[in-house]
Design a protein that fits this description.
about 160 residues; about 35% helix; about 30% strand; 60s Ribosomal Protein L30, Chain: A
Chain lengths: ~160, ~160, ~160
């Protein structure tokens, strides 16, 4: 399978449409390229018009569900890159990934949640998917999303 | 009105002085340009020496007041750009906006608060103000500010 | 003392080894350079395999300990730059510093905690260490770390 076929398969598995315009929540754009740098807006685990993983991780949301949320949010970012570049092969590098986990008091496994996104990037992009990362536990996320993430990619 | 006149009017409406050196809180600089990229430090709704919108949004601070906080913090960022470049016309693009909302448990309208900043950017800069954005709800902000935001702009 | 000797002395004082590969927590890299920009992953106050300053600042962790945490996390970032560039003299500029403080409700001195990192950057790098900064108070950090920080540096 090519990278693009793999992305399509991953999207289909969670109900995302690779060719659909992704819904966003406010007065901004989901992606902007300046020079080779491609900035992506904060992505939450939204499929269609629904945020499919909500709640506070370590309390009303399990760590496994939070990993699923990170996976879907990361897929959305990859779909945006695919739609912008025409192919994942246009991604030379993921430079930075920021992961925000809506956390319960005492939940300290934000890195483990973020690993679900990092693993997907490596699975779909190989060495080009290896990145610098920051993950933190925040108090609330838009739409009660369990996870939000943004990234900076480098175009080939 | 020119962009600069609009900025001056917006500043006057909230008590900000377009030509005054903005007070900051620590051992760093409010703005730094590298190549075309202009990075701006986290801005809170400070007017003169006072943080004018404090509290936890969804509890001791209303959503309307939080929007006002985002508006003022964004104005401060625009004042910094104006002072650095001599005119808002020197801004080719706002590349990224990060918005941190000091949130109550259960307050999930961080995007709506961030829209107050996004709307101001569009009002003053037009298409050049359209940006990529991440907004999250954090537990505490410096000086009990209701909102903090930072951005990256691109110089013309 | 040269910058590198100063860094070695600061590391020795807290038990960090300037030449040891720093342990990280997930499927990503600690540092990546693109063009002149060097991105560094989120650093917590880890020495060897132990996170040496844990807890919620303003409650189970004092502000003084939080400053120590920021100091160690910042040292780790500088060690990464040293290892990557062969010398701190290869750092032309610290462009941006983001500081996340695991905060108690009502703790609003995130800027004062972040100052411990900013002061270290200035001490070791002089004018090249002056940067743009954002500091926020988050609800939970990986491994219950009191402070996490990341940065973007510019290579000479």
């Amino acid at each position: 399978m090519t990278r693009n076929q793999q992305l399509a398969a991953c999207c289909a598995a969670v109900g995302l449409d690779l060719h659909e315009a992704l819904q966003i929540g406010g007065q901004y754009v989901p992606l902007m390229q300046h020079g080779q740098e491609i900035h992506i807006s904060g992505q939450i685990p939204r499929v269609g018009s629904q945020v499919v993983v909500q709640g506070r991780v370590g309390d009303s949301c399990s760590e496994a569900n939070a990993c699923h949320a990170a996976h879907i949010a990361c897929l959305r970012a990859l779909v945006l890159l695919y739609q912008h570049l025409g192919s994942l092969d246009g991604v030379a590098r993921i430079l930075r990934l920021n992961v925000y986990v809506q956390s319960a008091a005492g939940f300290t496994r934000q890195s483990e949640v973020a690993n679900a996104a990092s693993a997907l990037l490596y699975q779909l992009l190989g060495e080009a998917g290896v990145h610098v990362r920051t993950s933190v536990g925040v108090y609330q996320l838009p739409k009660n999303a369990a996870v939000e993430l943004d990234m900076v990619a480098i175009a080939a």
